[in-house]
Amino acid sequence: PTRVPHADAAAVAAALEGEWLLGFTVSARGAIAIAPTEAQQIFSAAEHSFERAMPAALPGLLRSGGTFSAKVDAATSTATLSLSPHRTSLGPLPLPATPYTERLLYLDSLMCITQPGTDSADATIWVRPTMKISNELDEDGFEP
User: Fold this and answer.
1) Would you list the DSSP string of the chain?
2) Lowest mean pLDDT: which of 9-18, 42-51, 71-80, 83-92?
């Protein structure tokens, strides 16, 4: 089930602010892949920018950076994240920077679960490096 407790795109962008570490990915077949410690993403809500390093199909980390925007469909309570990289590379090799969309399945102060595209069954689980619960959140970890 989807749980993104933010009423609008600005609130989602603000909730994404800061550093996230890639915990693991789960494929549609249920295979779990633990992420390397260097895999992370950083969002700046004020600048609508992101930096990301994720495992690639080839050995190494796929690094990208650019702009992002969040969209919330209040009628269906779904949120999407549109990432528009200005640069993408695999090690020293530059790659085409292609925009892509991820569906936000879950977002709170500690965890963010995304799904690549809109029809994929894969999931990517991101966690905060500090894993602290904010005092400004309710008992379920959501903003009041």
Assistant:
1) --B---SSHHHHHHHH-EEEEEEEEE-TT--EEEPPTT-EEEEETTTTEEEEEEE-SSSSEEEEEEEEEEEEETTTTEEEEEEEEEEEEETTEEE----EEEEEEEE-SSEEEEEEBTT---EEEEE-SS----TTS-TTS---
2) 71-80
Taking the C-alpha atoms of residue 140 and residue 131, their distance in angstroms, rounded to an integer, is 14
- Residue 102 or 143, more confident: 102
What is the spatial distance between Cα 7 and Cα 3, in angstroms, rounded to a whole number?
11
In tens, the pLDDT along 13-51 reads 999 999 999 999 999 889 999 999 999 999 999 999 999
**pLDDT of residue 142 exceeding 60:** no
Distance CA 127, CA 133 (A): 12
